[in-house]
Amino acid sequence: MHNFRRRLAAGTMLAVLGLATGAGAQSNDVEWPSYTADLTGSRYRPLDQINASNFNNLQVAWRFKTDNIGNRPEYKLAGTPLMVGGVIYATAGSRRGVVALDAATGELMWVHSEREGARGAAAPRQLSGRGLSYWSDGKQARVLYVTPGYRLVALDARTGQRVGDFGNGGEVDLKTDFDQEIDLIEGEVGLHAAPVIAGNTIIIGGAMHEGFTPAKKANTKGYVRAYDVRTGKRLWTFHTIPKKGEFGYDTWLNGSAETTGNTAVWTQITVDEALNTAYLAVESPTSDFYGGHRPGNGLFGNSVVAVDLTTGQRKWHYQMIHHEIWDYDSSSAPLLMDIAVGGKPIKAVAVPSKQGFLYVLDRVTGKPVWPIPEVKVPKGDVPGEWYAPTQPIPSKPPAYARNGVSVDDLIDFTPELREKAIALTKNYKMGPIYTPPVVSKLPGPLGLLTYAPQGGTNWPGGSFDPETSTAYIYACNACVGAYGLQPPPPGMSDLDYVVGVAGQPVTFVRTPGSGSSADAPPPRPAPAGGGSGNAGRLSIDGMPLLKPPYSTISAIDLNSGTIKWQIPHGETPDFIRNNPALKGLNIPRTGQSGYQIGTLVTKSLVIAGDGMVTTTPDHPRGAMLRAYDKQTGKEVGAVWMPAPQSGSPMTYSLNGKQYLIVAVSGGVYSGEYIAYTLPN
Questions:
Q1: Closest CA to 644 of 606, 608, 609, 593
Q2: What is the DSSP string of 405-462?
Q3: What is the distance between the alpha carbons of residues 242 and 256, in angstroms, rounded to a whole number?
Q4: Which residues pair with residue 481 across a beta bridge?
Q5: Closest by Cα among 575, 650, 577, 643 to 608
Q6: 528: pLDDT confidence band, cut at 50, 70 and 90?
Q7: Phi/psi zone of residue 624: left (φ > 0), alpha (ψ -120 to 50 degrees), beta?
């Protein structure tokens, strides 16, 4: 283990002390004290200095390159910084260092780094992660984060040094006191998400290896735990897979709760302090596309669970998918909101999803705000699989993204391209949402066409505007892939079936260091019918199999359960605009595919960056940070970024100036935080 801290001169250190405690901040400053701005998950700040009239005038205030925070540059910087008391706190670099920066200038104040050796190298969730947490009681201030090796570390916010009286010398080993045995080096568990702190309670989720091929069905169980933020003492554990005698155990037939893993909370957790309740969006059990070893609905897989903040006891739950076998794992932070439906005030929680459904529940009782009927779904024929006969489908709001695949969804720029798409897909299974997976066969079906791993809304989640009771949610509409099932080769996995395509070797599908199961490369399907297959994606003449829009941002009115507006996000990509097959055609704006785009809401704007680089006459090769009128969806401004948005944007006001920060990275561009503001 190694700790490195930049020593500051005495005068500078005094300035840091003042800033970190708020002494250097003006009373009208607006901070961003937690990953999603607040405990409700809103990603909202009531700022309007940056608005439609001047967004195009934004300039770079400062930038912080993360290359030297770690042992190599990182090309997947997914963080959202915090701003408290005039100081930016962020994770950065390949070893997940923590940095404190002057919020006005970007100057480095301190840096903390842990070297975890073999434990860090074996970690399922590496690199810089998505962020950290801040806590203060007015006298002391702490920054807390989870290392790649799954340690909870508490740092003095003023100095970056470990807090000696927290846990064991400033850390809690999260692989211990876990209600299960796990190897301290190789044990499979980590976390990219930021911890959530409510009062003096810090809540920690977990995440396993991304990908579709676990080595064993009895994987690590994703229990959720809470700790005292002062002492590091464990306060409670919530068993996301119930133990014998606990509520929900009987939903795991044949005792399969004992032999199944995952079912973790790898996304952000939100909290209603007034109700003393934390809201957990629980992912799917082991494994993503096959569940024959775990018959039954399997609580609390794919559920939103409300737990008592003090005790961790379940208050209520709502299962969004029964016996999940599509990799539609819960990806987004539950959004807490106060709405009025038919004139009746409701304390609600709304959960965006990969399915493109927004599940809206009463957050006190867990009852649906609008009916969510159980709808009969097809039964598959994979040997040994267990199928839920129905799935809950929200009646309101309507789906805000595509979630099934049919011929009508295929590329249609020209009749010739549509015919190529039909020919390419004839050996694949298509159908509405919850069409079951298939065993891959020659000549077909080679697999199921589905949006599951990367479609809809992924880990950035949505945002919510309390002024207008509107949620703003990004979704990927082009993220469709082909997934078949095959028996694993000897020694690969103890599952009966893993993801694979007939006639091709089954490989261990896993990509350490990625963000979620959505980040792992799917299997390569067999090309057919004039198209091509690349990492599970089917394409036609170098273009997506499906027609535009490739992505959207939707404004959903939560008082009425209706979509106010929906727009393609991002300009048309180069490979569409310059494709010879489309020469002479007038192609409307398509939006851009991608799954890691988060939105920010201010007094008048919705802000989100492009997910890929483009080259147009209007700007050099790069990506744009875009602003939309939050009432109409009209784009009102855009500023250039050197690389795509890879972490969700945030905003704050300091000394009378509003700033925007966004993380960019990808391709050949390593991670960088860029702060924008208006010229003086």
A1: 609
A2: B-GGGB--SSHHHHHHHHHHHTTSB-BSTTPPP-B--SSS---EEE-TTTSB--TT-E
A3: 11
A4: 450
A5: 650
A6: very low
A7: beta
**pLDDT averaged over every residue in the chain:** 92
Side chain identity at 83, as an amino acid letter? M
Name the DSSP class of 254. G
Structure confidence at residue 415 (pLDDT):
97
Relative to beta strand 531-534, strand 537-540 is antiparallel
Answer yes or no: are the C-beta atoms of 99 and 108 closer than 8 Å.
yes
C-alpha 46/C-alpha 74 separation (Å) is: 33
Distance CA 582, CA 574 (A): 12
DSSP state of 379: -
Residue 157 and residue 142 in contact, taking contact as beta carbons nearer than 8 Å: yes
| Residues 222 and 265 sit within 8 Å (Cβ to Cβ) | yes
Distance from C-alpha of 498 to C-alpha of 559, rounded to nearest angstrom: 43
Q: How many CB atoms lie within 10 A of CB 304?
A: 23
Among 83, 182, 111, 95, which Cα is nearest to 147's?
95
CA distance 463 to 556: 10
Residue 612's contacts (CB-CB under 8 Å, 6 or more residues apart) are 570, 573, 592, 593, 594, 623, 644
What pLDDT does 69 receive? 95
Alpha carbons 500 and 507: distance in angstroms, whole number: 8
Helices (H) and strands (E) in the chain, counts: 4, 41
- Distance, in Å, from the CA atom of 110 to the CA atom of 52, rounded to the nearest integer, reads 36
Question: What is residue 355's three-state secondary structure?
Answer: coil
d(CA 533, CA 522): 11
pLDDT at site 210: 82
Tokens in use for 75?
Answer: 């090309």
Threshold 0.85, pTM exceeds: yes
**Judging by DSSP bridges, how do beta strands 537-540 and 562-568 pair with one another?**
unpaired
Q: Which residues contact 63 (CB under 8 A, 6 or more apart)?
A: 106, 672, 673, 674, 675
- Nearest-CA neighbor of 480 among 529, 421, 394, 415? 421
Q: Cα(424)–Cα(480) distance, rounded to whole angstroms?
A: 14
User: Please, how many CA atoms are within 13 Å of residue 583, restricted to the half-sphere of its CB?
Assistant: 2
Evaluate the CA torsion angle 89, 91, 97, 103 in order and state its sign.
negative
460 and 265 in contact (C-beta within 8 Å)?
Answer: no
Residue 526 is predicted with a pLDDT of: 33
CA–CA dist 245, 239 (Å, integer): 12
Which residue matches tokens 């024929």? 381
Q: Ramachandran region of residue 347, left (φ > 0), alpha (ψ -120 to 50) or beta? A: beta
- Looking at the predicted structure, is the pLDDT value of residue 81 above 60? yes
Q: What number of other Cβ atoms are within 10 A of residue 15's Cβ?
A: 16
pLDDT at 21 over 60: no
Q: What is the pLDDT of residue 27?
A: 64
Amino acid making up residue 176: T
**Predicted confidence band at 508 (pLDDT cuts at 50, 70, 90)?**
low
